[in-house]
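FAQ: What does the model actually see?

It sees only this:
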Amino acid sequence: QVQLVESGGGLVQPGGSLRLSCVASGRIFSINVMGWYRQAPGKQRELVAAITSGGRTNYADSVKGRFTISRDNAKKTVYLQMNSLKPEDTAVYYCNVDLRTFGGSNSYITYWGQGTQVTVSS
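And it is asked to produce this:
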């Protein structure tokens, strides 16, 4: 009954910018932490950025100063603004949301988006 839909991936030149969006829908009671992970071919999935319900943020060292995570609680949406992109940023990006549903348990459950491809190449 919960769905996360990602958009905004694509092909960009090194030094370019891209903005990812992830919209949560369904019988959602409340949302806690929202974030973004990425996975490159042959590598483990890694945390890129996260943002709490209070607006505190956390970034991987490799993207600090280049990426910005934000959220719109009314739209149940999390964004990732990516600037100064590098070839090593190429990966599938997944949004991640901790939330509670109406009629569900009293604990927050983690949901994942379907993934969106980001390719940085000349």
